[in-house]
């Protein structure tokens, strides 16, 4: 759960790097919570909880995606591919690539940072 909390600590940080574990923990927990909000809204007859949740996690999700791209040595601008047809598939595949093993222009390898191993 600390990976999820760490992603929230960097929720508007578009600099630096995010490991696969941080990125995928954040995305998967948010997916489960979004499904819960959708079910809650369906039971109440309103999709408002779901859309409110999506509004809250939109920017932090994009920030995590940009930091994930930085981790593999790509510019965060590549995240814009997610908004064009089939570009999201490219970003999805890139999200599974292992970290650049050494420091890159976006920072040190997060796997080597104390407290996040």
Topology (SSEs and partners):
Layout lengths: L1 H8 L10 H25 L3 H24 L15 H8 L23
Helix pairs in contact: 1-2, 2-3
Provide keyphrases for this structure:
mainly alpha
Description of the structure:
With 117 residues, the chain is mainly α. The protein has one domain. The protein contains four helices and no strands. Helix 2 packs antiparallel against helix 3. The longest helix has 25 residues. The protein is globular.
Mean pLDDT: 90
Structural class: mainly alpha
* Radius of gyration from the alpha-carbon trace, in angstroms: 15 Å
Low-confidence stretches: none
The percent range for helix content is: 55-70%
Topology as H/E string? Answer: HHHH
Oligomer: single chain
Short description:
By secondary structure, this protein is mostly helical.
